[in-house]
Fold each of these.
Amino acid sequence: MERRRRDRGRPPRRRRERSRRSRRPARGRRARRCERRCADRHGSRRRTALRRGRACRALRCRHRCAGRTVERDVWIIFVPAEHAERIPGWGFTIRERQDLATLGRVLLRVAAPEDRDIAQAALELALDAPGTEIDFNHVYRPGADDDENTLTGAPAADRGSAPRRELPGSPLAVGIVDTALFRQHDALRSADIVERDFVPFAAERPTAHGTAVASVLVGDAAKLEPQLRGGRVYAASVFFVDAEGNDAATAASLAAAAEWLSAERVRVINMSLAGPPNRVLEAAIEALVERGVVVVAAVGNNGPNGDPLYPAAYAQVLGVTAIDSANRIYRYANRGPHVAFAAPGVDVRVARSGGGYRELSGTSIAAPHAAAAIARAFASRAGASPAALVAELKRTALDLGAKDFDPVFGFGLIAPLPVAPVIASR
């Protein structure tokens, strides 16, 4: 009787639960938009998982979809050449095939099937064709502060400088994966540059960012401070202007550019760009590293608390941050365990696309400084392995933060190794 009297004044349990649900905040527009996007790409199961607070592994969602793609209905597959013929047997419709012979891989653009999501497809291919990677054709952006006056042009022709001179011994060369170049600029007119286009879309090619990066390496010494004076730049043009007017490059273009640079026997590749993690891009970089190539990338300009950006955050890549003339860290630079070196990247004088010069800041301007130092180290240490060379550069770097390594400056300001004397042959 006493229990009944006490319970008489309480609301029914079902009613109390309903009132608790009514106090929950409604999902915002961003969450609903992400759910629709996930459902479009992966089916209703992914949308249900997202509603329950789980991350969509295939799209790497955490409340919102991380990483844009150019074609929603297209996946890219990076498969060993000996397994390439098995792909159609899994129900994939191949839209484009590129044989990356130097890396021993085949790059495929396939129509995304409706009967499975990308995580399921990746598992199936891994079992039937070992070494195969599949992912979306993610978008990557160049990164630098105050990237004004971006010019565009027609697709770059595959061309080299004239005359093309061979350097004695190991060629002093750096490959850059960037926008197209404004080759008519006075600072680049006499530079030794080999350029090739890797954009499959009929779109305008931006030239501002690549022109700035190339001028850091081989610009006219009378107006700039070239870090690779007398060297050669292999420029892979991968960026186009998307429908929103932004510079964009795809993971497929990055992988194809990597294969070309490897075929040209470039030992140091600079990627002053950033974007989401991508299994195909990671596999392409692993293949480069296996061939003795050192990949350098800008860590990004999303601030000290920014999420890691790729490819700099991959373990096989040397991430580079930016410092000013007083060795202070660039305030917008990303931080983390993937930072390997620091290099000048604040108010650096570069060539302006279209003519003239300007000062530019960002980790993407610091990265070519580090790439040039590594290329010169290769030239001065003929026969040295990439691992031994990088280890020596880490030991000789100027420590700017906590002792040895720290997530702000990495191992410190990268310093050029002394050039070994050249002994003339008799």
Note: Residues 92 and 113 are 7 Å apart (CA to CA).
Amino acid sequence: MIERDIWISVDGRVPPALLTRQGAALGLRGFVHHPSTRIAALQLRLIQGGHSVEARQVILEDGLLGPTEAGIDDAFDGGFYVSAVFPPCEALRDGQAWIDATVTWDRGTASCLRLASVDLIRVDPITESDSAAAAGPARIGIAMATFNPDLALFARQIGSIRAQTHPDWICVISDDGSQPEILRAIAASIEDEPRFRLLPSGRNLGFYRNFERACAALPPSCAFVALSDQDDVWLPERLARQIATAEAVPYCCCYSDMAIVQPQGAVVSPTYWVHREARWGSLGGLLLANVVTGMTVLARRELIDEALPFPATPGLTYHDHWIALVAGRRGSLRYVAEPLVRYVQHGGNHTGALVRWPDSQDVLRQTLRRIGHFAKIGVIGGRLRRAAAEPSTLDWLDIEPARLRILVERLTILPGGKPARDRALRRLSRRFGPVRLLTCGANWRDRYRRGVAIELGLGGLLKRALVRLLNMGHVRAEAPAVERRPA
């Protein structure tokens, strides 16, 4: 049982976990309430009814700041995030399960405890009719994610899929809880075409898990997977052009350029690469800044199966970035320098295509101002809790480095990598120090990638200095007491 003077709190509700044929991924964030004790290792189990499944990989990120969780007697950096992957288990069903843990503490003792509950959502491949199952070797499964789409733009996207010159495809539309009238309109727009299949959802998962659900639901007959947004336009030869490239490369992920257009169809730019660089330089460069846009991706099925389940991370991870990293590590990422998709720019886009990123000097000045502000309030002023609660402070000190390290740890246990490249990637992610960043082989002509590196490098220096000052007793955490409950 848990020791009397150590407590763990879990931050908020654990996000739902998708049970796919490749397994399930879940993540949770918490805080260890103790002046000095830390978690040395964790083993997790999913418990549902009489069934228990042990995680096959557990990635622990500890030493995270926790201004909303720390009590007056706690170490200020007692926060942690754990990302786990569970093997597939037919016995687990839709519904609530418990997350049990065996915690090994850094002082050598161990505790068994129940951390939290989690909702499980089972995702099985769709069934096909006998005629549909008799697919050719180049059948493409289209994974489309929708959420309250503009119906006119959605109809145009559906029309562009129908018009593909490569006819052997099936499209799974995973809806993420659209309004009932919009969901009915989606269903009506595809009811005359059996190659479209709509999967409604009773809850909102977010675009990352919704794309995972769409990919996991594709039938086994699909040898390739194409990703689709809900409101763009494919050129008629998109699938045919990309499959010609992907057929020749095992584990291939093929992506293309795209034209930027207004909702009415007027071309804003004939290429996506206006303010970004198409080259990434190294796997470390691809980790820092993605260049693969999901709406242009066509990948071999074995690559998508290897990428599932998508890793659980703190912060915001994109499905296309993760898939690109899996392919990049295998050396199977291929680019078609033609705009095969028309990317519609409107107010609902999750990312903008024509954002002009600030130059390095501006990012450096902005980051140094943030460091100065943090030091003035938290270190000199002794109000560390207030300083850490400033908007985005935790993101660049803790969350973003932890997110990237989790991606690297998950990535480097997959088959198909080169040991030397994996070691270099782990070394980079372990600290994100300025020297390691500068020597990682990234393409530094990309302004966005330079900005990410500056924030990671300086944020890491500040975090290490802060922890050192805390350990030396030069800075007080100044955190209020919280109600303590056994984990």
Note: Residues 49 and 97 are 8 Å apart (CA to CA).
Amino acid sequence: MLKLAKRTAQAEKQAARKERLKQRALDAIDGGRRKQVRSLLKEEIFVQTQQARRLRREKWTLGPLAPQRNHAGSIADPIRRGRSSVTNNFGTEMFSSDVIPYWGSISVRRIRNANGPLTPKDVENRCAWAGTPKRLCLAVGDRAVIMEGTMKGQIAPIKDIKPEEGTVTLEGVARVNVTVPEAMIAEGDQSVQQIEASIPIDAIRLVHPLTDPATGVTRDVIIRELRAQAFQMDRVTRRLTFTRVVPGLNVRIPWPRQERPPEYQDEPNDTLRIDTEQVTFVPTLLRPPAPEAVLDELRNKFSRFRTRHTADFIAEKEAEAAAKKEANKYGSALVKRQQPGVSPPSMRTPLEEFHIQQKALRKERGQPELTDEMLEKIGRIMAQTKISALENAGITEIPTQSSTSQEPPTSSPPS
């Protein structure tokens, strides 16, 4: 049994080591992908920087004769497309990619990776003031204020949240021009469209009205830290809900009002909730919850990670261990399909053959039985041996008091 436990522990260690190596390889692949994205973003930024420098030099040297590069490519027209236009084909010779953004706009790739690829630890650090990425104390509809950058101080409701990236989108704030790919442009739409850029969560703070207990005045307050408390699991929707609280003040911040979900009418083919919640199976101790064959299929009785074994399997393994221990007496002479503990016939010595015959004879005779005469003779010899042993030691045997001896008479009390 100890060997089985060691085998299971070794299998778990090997599986954990393989998982670590696999995760390390995946991290290396993700790291290479992040480096590639960073290089592409740097390339686009470099191209746009070179364009700005050339434009500044043209305006300085040409003056009013400098070309106007901010007019072409605004309409989805093949004739006036910026990529095919002579006036807007500016800086494309330095761009290795086929997707070239129009003048005054950025590519979709850059707007998606505006902050660069992040690691899970970086995302967790971004969401530190508002909980964790999985338990984020922000919701769509909350008002937030920007605390950094050129748009510092602007307040707007949250339009979208991406916890996996640690970013939010504010409605009407940080709008940028983006070059839309040709496959995504509808008829009559513009090639360059404005969308809200993503803002890191650590660059914003929640704005909520609170009442001052001293003055009784209610005003908007910037909340710099939030924590999740009072977790509850909804039995119907299987969703985890919690309450967000300002630590230190012990003030609960209510969630924004969400749109009510549509109410559906029950149809004849619908299953009622009372039927789904009805308990139809009550487990008992008299029979297993599933057949043993099904349990073996679910647990894989031949798995190395199994920790619960049947009595027959344990007895079989113990017998194999005992046979192997006995067979080790003969070293490598043991061959397959031979009796454990016995050398092959081709390698037996005459003495081993004699021992095997004697062992077979003793097994046939069985255990010896003693007759009454033998027992009497054994008792006589034991008595003689006892007397001679006491004489040699110079001591005598002290007879024990018989249990049938009468008790001494007790004296009567004086009159």
Note: The chain has a mean pLDDT of 79.
Amino acid sequence: MKRRIVLPEVEEVKLPVLFSMRPGMYLLILYTLFIVAAIFCIAFLPGILKGGRYVTFTAPLSESGIVLDGTYLGSADNQYFITSGSHEITYMKGGVAYASSTMEVDHPVFLTWLFHRTKTAETPAMGMSEEQKREVIRYNLEQVQAASAILSYDAVTRFEKVYTNLLTDLTAMDVPDETLTEALELSLLYCTNETMLADALDALQRFQVSQSSFLKELITLANNIVENNAGKAGLPGESISLQKEVRKLKAGDLELTGYRYPQARFVMGRTVDLAYPAVNEAGVAVTTPTFVLSSEEVSQYQWALFLQENPMWEKSNLAALQAQGLVDEAYLAGLSPSTVFVTNRPIHNISYYAAQAFCDWLSKKTGKSVFIPSESMWTVAALSHSNLAFAASLSPIPTQLEEPVSLLGGVWELTSTTHIPLARITDYQKAHALHQRFGLPVQPIVKGGSYLNDAKSISSNTVGVVDPDACGDFIGFRVAWYE
């Protein structure tokens, strides 16, 4: 028989009474308050603390940027969270503020972290001046110009639809037909690869553009180049004979010897395969006026004289020059031009803009019009040279000939002629007139090679291209002037 277990008596546990309420009642209230607080914190508090909407912008022009209340937000192609309130929106393209508007964003609060509230900003009206339109067109053409330097695109090097963007903006700005046609003609002069051509053809078809005869010619040429159609381009090259005369240009301690060339008409270049970049050397008929070309490239001593009177161009001012886009980080790298030690070694590691500044300075000192020679001026000197030898050294080799030295070899020489890829196989003069009409940046052609090049690979026809702020190790220049 089991023993009976007797438990000790214990005191009964009683929950305290609050505000005369039974425990069940106030526990229910506490649970309810907790649930309400949780719902508030989860569903409403995030929206209260961060009220606003995800806004999609619709820009009238392609590839536009958005400035919100004076702060750059980003590309108009993206969606952005905009806080509640009244906001000023400015639409930018190529540095031009072409439209603005005011937008009101309300303050939704319920489950905004889970369900994004969106809003589409109204497309603003454009009130652009003619100057603003020109700036936008120039910016689009600069994008085409930059794209032409890349011959193939892939997953790493992505292609921006430059022709589609150009036509989108030309149409949106309602420019005159003549401006639209000329802008398209200039853009097609930079069509150098299959991807660009496909974009151009697609854009022309989409916008139903009326094509001028010159535009049709450019499309045909670009198509032949891209498809590698067998063919030749350019006039055959020729040698010329000109009577040259010695001239002097003096300015204080600086004295230049030069040779005067009479006006001449000749073929610059040669017959080449119809392919890019071979067409850079295609023969084209050009005319040069009477001019004087310096016998040697500008020397380091002459550059030191320039720096002495123009401290802005000292190497110590490199940061400021770079900020202005006049040079790159290689400006005068490894050089210390001095007026104490006279040397005829050519100056190098200078940019096109720096060379222009030197010419402007020399023009003021001499009262003559001093300038960087054009490609055709450099070529007429090379073609008429009686003994065009390759200089395999930076130091000019003395000669008894009264002709320029180191036209080949030495350093690559800057010219004032800009590079337009298809200019030589079409209307050369019109191509350069269009470039000037729209004010595109110069991409200077350089001639003659440097002393480090293989002499067999360099001729008077060889064409190189640099950026105007580039300061290459082997890029220099010589000057020309009018009497």
Note: Residues 130-229 form one domain.
